[in-house]
Amino acid sequence: MNRAFSRKKDKTWMHTPEALSKHYIPYNAKFLGSTEVEQPKGTEVVRDAVRKLKFARHIKKSEGQKTPKVELQISIYGVKILEPKTKEVQHNCQLHRISFCADDKTDKRIFTFICKDSESNKHLCYVFDSEKCAEEITLTIGQAFDLAYRKFLESGGKDVETRKQIAGLQKRIQELETENTELKNKVQDLENQLRITQISTSPAASMTPKSPSTDIFDMVPFSPITPQSTTPTRNGTQPPPVPSRSTEIKRDLFGAEPFDPFNCGAGDFPPDIQSKLDEMQEGFKMGLTLEGTVFCLDPLDSRC
Length: 304
Hints:
Blueprint: E1 2-3, H1 17-21, E2 25-37, H2 43-62, E3 69-75, E4 78-82, E5 89-94, E6 98-103, E7 110-116, E8 123-129, H3 134-155, H4 158-206, H5 271-285, H6 299-303
Antiparallel strand pairs: 1-6, 2-3, 2-8, 3-4, 4-5, 6-7, 7-8
């Protein structure tokens, strides 16, 4: 393994300073993974990490898993590891946290760097596989480090503090976006649960007591099955009380029995009168309302 960068004044770099300070240099590679190391630098440290990740990759390859491809964006601010198609940032390694970078002279496809994790403060070794650009990628990281170090000396360290603040704000923005997404999912779940609850309880809620229907005269229909209700009608008046029937037969002043069409037998009246009585009785059963009407059956005496 070979240390990739130094701060010698006579060092010749591959890219212009503007390309790394104002933009970034992209590279494509395969990502073998990252592993924790005990030291922030050292040839033996990265060699053990490469050996460990290569062995783990061989096991995954035997199980049918392919080595994932990534895009590296190198600038004076750090090395970003992105998914090539979606451009989603998988790792953002700030340059001032990178302590070692090297490529393997025995296997020219492999290059690696060690970076201190911002959350756990552990040193992680990132290992990559590039068929043609392993050494070039290592030198580009070294050039970015050299430019960043010179800028640090010129600014007296203020630029590094500014980048730290920006990095902290970017991290906070990502956390807020994640929290926002989680809250949206929770709100959606609550809305779905509320909708299901309303659907399941709507039949029971809709079974409310119904007020009795009325006729065109705003009167409640009479039903011989149910007792007479004492509820006042909509016009505010109480219906007239229904006289209770006594088992004793009362007679009028002339000694005649009062006429009751519902107690008379079918054979006591002519067929035409009996049919009208039956029609009246059927009408009462169907809810016919005749409140406040005086009945007069004057022709009855002449037809009997």
